[in-house]
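Q: Could you write out the predicted structure for this multi-component system? I'm mainly interested in how the pieces pack against one another.
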Amino acid sequence: MTTISQPDNAVIAGMSESARSRAPRRVRGLSDRAIAWLFVAPTIALLLAINIFPLIWMIRLSFTSLNLSMSYLPLRFVGLDNFTDILGDEDVWFRLQTTAQFVIWSVTLQVIIGFGLALLINRQFRGHSFWTTIILLPMMLSPAVVGNFWTLLLQPQIGPFNYLISLFTGVPPSSFSMTGQVSLAPWTIVLVDTWMWAPYVMLICLAGLRSIPDYIYEAAEVDRASAWRQFWSITLPMTVPFLMLAVLFRAIENFKMFDMVNLLTSGGPGSTTELVSITLKRAAFEKWRTGYSSALAIILFVTVFGAANIYVKALNKVKQR
Amino acid sequence: MRTFNWLRSSAATTVLGTALLGIFGGGEAAAQGKQLTLCWAAWDPANALVELGKDFTKQSGIEMKYEFVPWTSYADRFLNELNSHGKLCDLIIGDSQWIGGAAENKWYVKLNDFFDKEKISMDDFVPATVVGYSQWPKNSPNYWALPAMADAVGWTYRKDWFSRPDIQSAFKAKFGRDLAPPKTYDELKQIAAFFQGREIDGKKVYGAYIFTERGSEGITMGVTNVLYNYGFSYDNPKKPYQMQGIVNSSDAAKGLEYYKELYKCCTAPGMTNAYMQEGLDAFKSGQVAMQMNWFAFFPGLYKDPNVGGDKIGFFVNPAGPNGRFTQLGGQGISVVATSDRKDDALAYIKWFAQPTVQQKWWQLGGYSALKAVVDAPDFPKSAAFAPQFLESMGIVKDFWAEPSYAQLLLDMQKRVHDYVVADKGTAQQALDLLVKDWTKVFKEQGKQVASQ
């Protein structure tokens, strides 16, 4: 890098008069490095203030007994008690199990439907742009809006969803409640999440499909490969990295899922759809168990971070193949 | 080169300037006149309070600003505000269960000296509201709030349906007695089952609406109305915090079983997560014959053009095998300790405590707790629901008001909802687990919990 803020004296001596007269002005200016720091500094400061510092503070709190609703009690250092409490709590394991089931089912369905939609949209047909826009609409909505209007759609007495099911099955519409029955509620949250996010997977897959050069298909045509063979040997292998990326994004997002499920079922009936993020929110901001919830947040963070890292390594291996 | 230097200097100046503006330019000019912010829930009585507050502004010159939050996020929002020592609220109408935490954490200003100075006597207020909304520790002369909004759970019913000859005769033929507002929970279930699925004016109707909400406090505020009357208590009156055999007594388990039976047999489909608003909607749309809800909503229901007036009737929470009680609601008004305008806030409380203001409060749709208002001879005739309100306020019981109330409440929400709505385990198991949860909470709080 060229340094112009501290010029060498010998160089200055050799400069022309006019150049020398400009030198002091150049010294007064800031170096490239300083300017770079000046621009980056606010972002770094912000990152430290709202991300790094709270993270460190949270780690500290996770070893304490802090309960904000009883902040008059002396703060006690409890070592690993919060962590052992959480890991020994049957309820937390149930919530993790519920979350894992939600993640696996919703991501699987989203990948299948998203990929299928991408294959359809990748073809040229009349009204292509219109249908693409329609399919993308759900993912553009806010989860709060989605949660509220699905609550209405799924209402057993006035919601059209039950009437639609009734039309096909003959079951009376008000005889079942999608969000209120233990057997249906977990599938309901999977259904709504899939409706909202399958288009997102479709977009990623579409990018993958469009990145496959036409000449590969042309060569396959020359070799008289069937459509199924082309799909199996060209399309699928070449979109796998994109699919894996979509799985990574959606799995991380769904592991943290809170808003939509909270609006749809509040974790109910009972605790049937209580994802671990809802447990965390209740512990932190309703029960005010700050120490305990900090420990739970760390456990979740480490889980997601660890799983994501393993997955990214696998993704890189697939890419290298 | 000159341009380059100029660019650098400009960039530096801009960045520094922006930073300086951020540091020094963020503040706004101080408020022009005197102003108080009052925090409460967003519901019908809050509108009445806004109307009432205009008189205070007229008299004192202090502008009133209101921060009303929907019930579902009311506790989250304001407890967070109090926890973080925020300055949003000068006055707060906080829920009765907050009083322990607010007192222990010094979120509220203690009002004893102020009451003495202004000659405001707590003897002038309905005793249950003083204990429920103002005192901490309970039944001690330590006051943290002025009873502001008396409330309890009551019931509404479709008087027009109950009085129809065809329905009357069908009921008498089936049960051998006249159809009338229930006095016991057995009668209530009988009536609810009678109406369940019946066609009235070509429309299918349902028996009863009860609270089942999972997220905040709904199902607990509903089920306790039955539990109290079946013999449930929070702890042993002689041994505080001794819950084993009290909370999970066989009588309490029977009460919980009853609530589940009522939910299964006689409520409208889809009422798996329903609280105040869903009840109002169900009743106003002519869907249910009887509705459990807070008295605070009854003035609005009485005025409803479709189901109000002659069509609506009210009754007190029915008795169970072991007594007749009802769940206390309502709130007291407190001065927030972090407020910069404590004197003005106290002036508001002084004004609000006046009998004339309390009388107007009741007339506008609020519920006064002042004896001079509710014990006045013409009070029972002042509203269709006034006699039931008065009777209910004499039989109220409240949930824990400990600093750890939120944990205790959420534990109960979970255990009861798991059993009633999600069909998990038995009533006895649900209450046994509740005792376990509550014992853990109290032990964390440093309380001695006797097992027997």
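A: Regarding packing and overall arrangement: Chain B touches chain A through 46 residues (CB under 8 Å).
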